[in-house]
Amino acid sequence: MKSKVMAIVFHAHGVPEEVAHAEEIEVAEPGADEALVRLLAAPINPADLNVIEGKYPLRPALPGVPGVEGAGVVEAVGADVKNLRAGDRVLLPHGYGTWRAAGVVKAENLVPLPPEIPAAQAAMLRINPATALRMLRDFTELKPGGWILQNAANSAVGHAVIQLARASGWRTVNVVRRAELIDELKAAGADAVLLEGDGLPEQISAATGGAPIHLALNAVGGDSALRLAKALAPGGTLVTYGAMSRQPLRLPNGLLIFQDLRWRGFWISQWYRTAPPTAVAAMFAELFALAQSGVLHAPVERIYPLAEAAAALAHAAQSGRAGKILFGGEA
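RESULT FIELD:
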């Protein structure tokens, strides 16, 4: 038997708040290996907005339900499901489309959540903290007390980098575009916060006392990425995971030849596709422990019901927010 629930659906690409609307969709009973999951919370990430705009590499078939991550609670399970039961809270999978009040999911794709993690915080662990953790771990060996450099430091990934680095005994130089963010990031644990602009490599050197920096994380591109590269030590690595400026990277021959810099890219969706299941499980266990201990905590500005899709999407697109915008499940 099928029932109807509310979801955010877009039938064409365009401005998110104009083309994505709340409407009813059908939900079937779970099959033998499936679970019916009710939404608790789902964030609005920049990638979600890009998907609706048609600017993201992954394009779901239309009409589509956006939402790349979220947390839910199991309402019912199929006859063959042994690892979950009604009432369990779970992390929702990639490709599901989390902006729906409820849906049916293969049980094997659901990750059980510790009950101590608040739903809103759990809903934001799959993408941004995971991206931060993998970039800090997978590209170079960071020694205790070592420095990490990043732009877009006030982003969700940037906040996670600061939190994870501090917990691991590493120090961060954080580059932002607005002066009012300096005190905010220092209060969050940033060791140094600098403003974008000419002369940034020299300011970075002064902030670190001339210490070598072997890892830089770039979410902006263009001139901002070049400034990070110029501040790296010989043999350092610049990892690009975003392109907020929509400007291409410029790779000066001298930095490659004489500094032997490494230029790498990272996309968490690709990591999930290629990582062994044991590696994914181990990462989630670590992220859950960090969230439970309070090391990982993402600020939330507002939680909207699904019925207020246009307001939520417009709010999420605004700059200068103090935290994430999320959809909350219906009570």
